[in-house]
Amino acid sequence: MAITLNLYYTGQNGSARKFVEEMESSGVANKIRNEKGNLGYRYFQSLDDPETILLVDSWENQEAIDLHHASSMMNEIAQLREKYDLHMHVERFVSDEALPETDQQFIRK
Q1: DSSP 3-state helix, strand, coil percentages of the chain (rounded to 5)?
Q2: In the sheet where 3-10 sits, what is the strand order?
Q3: Alpha-carbon gap, residue 8 to 86, rounded angstroms
Q4: Is the pLDDT score of 93 beyond 90?
Q5: Which side of the chain, N or C, has fewer Cβ within a 10 Å radius?
Q6: What does the domain layout of the chain look like in residue ranges?
Q7: What is the pTM of this model?
């Protein structure tokens, strides 16, 4: 059962965007993508709030998230969040991995 986290990073004067740029350029984001159990790690820019960046972070299970949280990368991420004075809002979703047939009719493939 996959777990997906939507992390909304909000700052001022482009700081959320700068945070993402440093996460990518420093290689931290790619290290996370390569961690065992990571299913996806992608950033998105908000269309209605340019000061907010959405991170969609997906994991195979809670154990994979726990291992990630115990890694040394979490210190790097925390330092960057402080550096850019970011505030966060988090949503958590657990996948049942079954798209009902009644929903499939609305998906254009």
Answers
A1: 40, 30, 35
A2: 38-45, 52-59, 3-10, 87-94
A3: 9
A4: yes
A5: C
A6: 3-96
A7: 0.89
Residue-wise pLDDT for 32-45, tens only, equals 999 999 999 999 99
Which pLDDT tens digit goes with each residue over 95-107?
Answer: 887 778 888 888 8
| Residue 55, phi then psi, degrees to nearest 5 | -105, 120
User: Are 80 and 15 in contact, with CB atoms under 8 Å apart?
Assistant: no
CA torsion 25→28→30→36, rounded to 10°?
180
Sign of the alpha-carbon dihedral angle for 100, 106, 107, 109: positive
Question: Where do the H-state alpha helices sit in the chain?
Answer: 15-25, 28-33, 62-70, 73-83, 101-104
Fold assignment, 3-96: Alpha-Beta Plaits (3.30.70)
